Amino acid sequence: MRMATQSSSQGSRSSTKSRGRRRTCFCGERPVLRTSSTAENPRRRFWGCVNFQIGDGCDYFAWAEPEGQDPQIQRLKNKASSLKEELQKAERKFALALGVGIVGWTLAGLLLCDRLN
Q1: What are 32's strand-pairing partners?
Q2: pLDDT tens for residues 21-40?
Q3: Which domain of life is it from (predicted)?
Q4: Which end of the chain is more exposed for a tag (fewer CB within 10 A), N or C?
């Protein structure tokens, strides 16, 4: 799918307070939500003219969410952060268990040596 090339000033001019998109595109039609299939923006959602690539479509284009604000990306970032916290907790527990084990074996060794003497 070919993406419409349009300057960022046109894209920002085309948006309204209603969730960052116009109620109608430049030719008076309601924009439709589409999904990009370009290598640069795979699966990124955008609003486009219903007449996009059909005859004399107006080439209206606006990203559905600002870059980096994709809900799926945010969910994955939250999940990564949660997993990192869990890993840090597990590392602390392991270090504590290792410390207790070393102290225990050291004391057991000392007691054994004391009994042998």
Answers
A1: 48
A2: 457 788 888 888 888 888 98
A3: Eukaryota
A4: C
To the nearest 5 percent, what fractions of the chain are helix, strand and coil? Answer: 45, 10, 45
Ramachandran bin of 66, using left for φ above 0, alpha for ψ from -120 to 50, beta for the remaining angles: beta
How big is the CA angle at 10 (ends 25 and 20), to the nearest 5 degrees? 60
- Candidate ranges 5-14, 24-33, 68-77, 106-115; pick with highest mean pLDDT: 106-115
Strand order in the sheet with 32-35: 32-35, 45-48, 61-63
Distance of CA 109 to the CA centre of its chain: 52
Other Cβ atoms less than 10 A from the Cβ of 1: the count is 10
62, 31 contact by CB (below 8 A): yes
Q: To which residue do tokens 């479509």 refer?
A: 57
